[in-house]
C-alpha cells in the first residue's frame, strides 16, 4: 500500500467520528473477491453464460461496442491520496456532519 494512504484513511475515520469502519486492506481487497478459485467458474461468469445462451449473439454485438471504448486508467496513488485529502477537508468544513450524513441515512 502506498505510503500515506493508511494515515489519511485513519485521519478520515477520526475526523468523521466513524465508529464502525472496516480495515482499509479489507476495503481494497474484499474477501468476497478472493473466494474465486482459479479454474472455477464464478457466479458472475455462470450468469453471463446463461444470459448469452438465452439471448444468442445479441450480447456479442454489445460487447463489440464496449471494446471500442478505451478503458479509463486506474487512479494513481497520488490521485487517491489527493481525493481522500479533499474528503477530509470537506468533512472538517461541515459543522453539522454526522455519521448518518456519511452513510446516507
Question: What sequence of helices (H) and strands (E) makes up the elements?
Answer: HHHHHHH
Q: What structural class should be given to the helix and strand makeup?
A: mainly alpha
The biggest beta sheet is recorded as: none
Number of strands: 0
Which range best describes the helical content: under 10%, 10-25%, 25-40%, 40-55%, 55-70% or over 70%? 55-70%
What is the typical, i.e. mean, pLDDT?
Answer: 76
Regions with little confidence, pLDDT below 50 for 5+ residues:
none
Based on CA inertia axes, which overall geometry fits? elongated
Helical run tally: 7
Number of domains: 1
Rg, alpha carbons: 20 Å
Region (Disordered): 52-82
Q: What does this protein structure show overall?
A:
By secondary structure, the protein is mainly α. It has one domain (5-94). 62% of the residues lie in helices and 0% in strands. It has seven helices and no strands. The protein has helices spanning 5-15, 24-28, 31-34, 43-55, 58-68, 77-92, 99-103. The radius of gyration is 20 Å and the shape is elongated. The model has no long low-confidence stretch (mean pLDDT 76).
